[in-house]
Amino acid sequence: GVIRSRSLGMKGTRITILNDKLLEKLGIVIQEN
Most exposed: 9, 11, 28, 31, by fewest CB within 10 Å? Predict the structure, then answer.
């Protein structure tokens, strides 16, 4: 159970980081336009 929840937590963190980078890129694009 611990290993499974830990791997899920890592996936969630990775997804959050990806979302932050995507939002940053989108924000830059919006500012440029």
Answer: 31
